[in-house]
Amino acid sequence: MTTITIPQDMRPEDGRFGSGPSKIRPEQVAALDAGATTLLGTSHRQAPVRRLVADIREGLRDFFRMPDGYEVALGNGGASAFWDVACASLINRRAAFGCYGSFSAKFAASAASAPFLEDPVRFEGEPGTYRLPELTDGVDAYCWAHNETSTGVAAPVRRVPGSLEQDALTLVDGTSAAGALPVDVSQTDAYYFSPQKAFGSDGGLWVAVLSPTAVERAARVEHAATLPGARRWVPPFLSLTSAIANSRKDQTLNTPAVATLVMMADQVRWLNGNGGLDWAVARCAKSAETLYAWAERSDYASPSVADPAARSHAVVTIDLDERIKASDVVAALRDNGIVDTAGYRKLGRNQLRVGVFPSVEPSDVKALTACVDYIVERL
């Protein structure tokens, strides 16, 4: 393919549009430099790093407007590790899942493989749609993803009617939604995510907003696992009660990547300083609607998600006409310093996928659309 050179004045000022890892602001990198001698390479159980964790926990309390009694816990391993934490410590016998993409289905697969849990109930939705779990006898946890990163679908966050009377927990994966989409965490018992999306940091950490009911459930489930004849095994690394106990001390059970904490703390301060969740949601919506409006006007592109109400304002997916190879567009963009716009590999669609998290400038999103048009005209 002939190299296409986009005029410099057309290009975004920052060409990073990843759906995770996402753009990291220069100020976050500067925060690493500022903490080089006091934070990096020091013990996570000492005061400087513990103050950093305390800043994150308190900042998230303000950002999510957490109800009384809710608390923030942190652990190692990323949100995918939290699926196993939930299987070990939160799901008592059986869970129901909304499955409508790669990531929402993976949690269900973890529960299916746990030998001490009953087979999960799966409510399947086609890619490009969402399907929430429905009230089901014998279920003690309802689980789904707020934002399906693989398809660009955003689902509602609200308790399944009747689930409270059933004493069932609501566990919502907020990995690519937290910090970008509106949420009322009181509608959940665990709203968990990783920091490499809207919180503009690196991966390897999970963060969970937990209700008092979830904390009590974890204590009860893990205690039952210690009784004679118990079939459940709770490895120390997957113990939610251990993560909670350490988080209350403003530390993690195992050594964390301190650089990740530094960058996340700076991002939380930046978000709160600009207006918190409402500001972040409005900023992401502006960027997302720029892309959707452009695609709807285009004669070769269209939003992948048909229902406007289900279209994500965190990760935007755009289908291209079959005569235009998305791989060619993505390659040409990369040649011009505009990166991470490829669709989710396992989905196999001819599409672009664009992360529009708070760190991404809306003006850069608008520039991206012009660059795609420029490339397509010359393919």
UniProtKB/TrEMBL annotation:
Family annotation (Pfam families): Aminotran_5
UniProtKB keywords: Amino-acid biosynthesis, Aminotransferase, Cytoplasm, Pyridoxal phosphate, Pyridoxine biosynthesis, Serine biosynthesis, Transferase
Gene Ontology cellular-component annotations: cytoplasm
EC numbers: 2.6.1.52
Ligand binding (L-glutamate): R45
Domain Aminotransferase class V: 135-343
Cofactor requirements of the protein: pyridoxal 5'-phosphate
Keyword Metal-binding listed: no
Compartment annotation: Cytoplasm
UniProt remark on cofactor binding: Binds 1 pyridoxal phosphate per subunit.
Binding site for pyridoxal 5'-phosphate: A79, S80, F103, T149, D173, Q196, N254, T255
Oligomer and partners: Homodimer.
PANTHER family per record: ALANINE--GLYOXYLATE AMINOTRANSFERASE (PTHR21152:SF40), AMINOTRANSFERASE CLASS V (PTHR21152)
Full protein name: Phosphoserine aminotransferase
Native source species: Bifidobacterium pullorum subsp. saeculare
Record gene name: serC
